[in-house]
Amino acid sequence: MNSTTTFDTPLALRHAIRERRWTGYTNHIAPHHVQGNLMIVPAAYADAFAAFCAANAQALPLLARSEPGVPFMPALGADLDLRTDVGGYMVFRDGELSSTPESITDIWRDDLVAFVLGCSFSFETLLRNHGVRLRHLDEGNVSAMYVTSLQTEACEPFKGPLVVSMRALSPADAIRATLVSSRHTMFHGAPVHIGLPQLIGIEDLSQSYGGHGLTTLREDELPVFWACGATAQLAAMHARLPFCITHYKAHMVVTDLRIEELAASA
Amino acid sequence: MNSTTTFDTPLALRHAIRERRWTGYTNHIAPHHVQGNLMIVPAAYADAFAAFCAANAQALPLLARSEPGVPFMPALGADLDLRTDVGGYMVFRDGELSSTPESITDIWRDDLVAFVLGCSFSFETLLRNHGVRLRHLDEGNVSAMYVTSLQTEACEPFKGPLVVSMRALSPADAIRATLVSSRHTMFHGAPVHIGLPQLIGIEDLSQSYGGHGLTTLREDELPVFWACGATAQLAAMHARLPFCITHYKAHMVVTDLRIEELAASA
């Protein structure tokens, strides 16, 4: 497996992930299909989490919600098993990271409800189609994330800061990306900030959330920030949920939905 | 006359300008009506200038063109006399500024063709309607203009650099203003640049074209740049036209067209 690896279908990719034949970031590997953030919470918290998503829809656009105990989402993907088809998981207990397993089959429970939320990886294809240069992709990287001083709208017990993703863009591309992304509310819509990260509580771009992603700026680039689904992770930690599971960084749920089709229908 | 002066109609304002009862900038005084840049050229150059406008429509959106020798534009305003109803004029001979009269009645000629081009003053009302704070208006000032290193598309003899107007905006307002202005191509559409003026040849914001307008930035503001109708002035100077006339800085043609109506129809 290397950077030239491709899969004929999202299903083939999910099977490769399930069988650990693909363990990398998903942003490069499925450029034409919608990807999503995963959040799995006990049923007792599911309605509150759904309300939190609705109240913060720019960060947390809901693509699908499962029935309690059902780890499948046929509307999003054929033979999609949320317990095995994501490249990595983070398990939180009482708000603390407890483990990062490769599969959650052995800890799945009948009371768990899964949510899949839109992800900015999906609009990157649309940006590129409009001529926006995404240097982090050119460099084989992912976009960096940051915790901001902006606050979400709370839906108890969910609350906490807005997390954003950052892309380093030329000024002309920043304008183009603003216009293109604004039309795609299922993928976070327009940027929430541009150019002056210290105003939203980001003091040092090199210190990204999770420690990964492209964090450098060239002299001819501006940092452009979009609301990010990782906001859900922070909210679950702030809520100190007894138990929840999310995807591991930049290893997303890859669906069968085509980006252009969802974009056109939204 | 002071900053609280208002006029019931654009016609009343034009009569006040004609009679020198109003001599100030027009950006504050007619916030609901479309304003335009004025360019008057000999008929021999009119088609070339129209082609130049069409080739550079973001800077030079054509609102109206007169017949040779006709200084009236009834489609833009009742009793609108372009020889007297603009607060100031600049007369160029062989590409050099020759005089800045208060009226051009005595130099009007039967071969002159007038063009009125969209102006960013018109979208400022729309920006404010969407909650964008325009500090230069709050401070009783106008937006500053700059000559850039970006080049227009030439239509001989017209060519030369793109001129831009700058507004100092908060990052959130810069995003909002980008989205709102992009929908109004008759008023220059989306910004052409944001944030890094040296990339478009602007080394010093304090040195604005014409020497007027708000040129300072606060720490929490970004400079946002739109294509500007003053591009026509520079092009006429570069063309070394034997004779042409434009409006004097920030003294625009005030029309009877309502901004919201033109915006909705475009």
TrEMBL record, chains A, B:
Molecular-function annotations in GO:
lyase activity
Q: Which domain of life is it from?
A: Bacteria
Which SUPFAM superfamilies does this one have? PSTPO5379-like (SSF160920)
User: Key word Transport present in the record?
Assistant: no
Keywords carried by this UniProt record: Lyase
Record InterPro entries: D-Glu_cyclase (IPR009906), Putative_hydro-lyase (IPR038021)
Family statement: Belongs to the D-glutamate cyclase family.
Q: What is this protein called?
A: Uncharacterized protein YcsI, UPF0317 family
Provide the species name: Paraburkholderia phenazinium
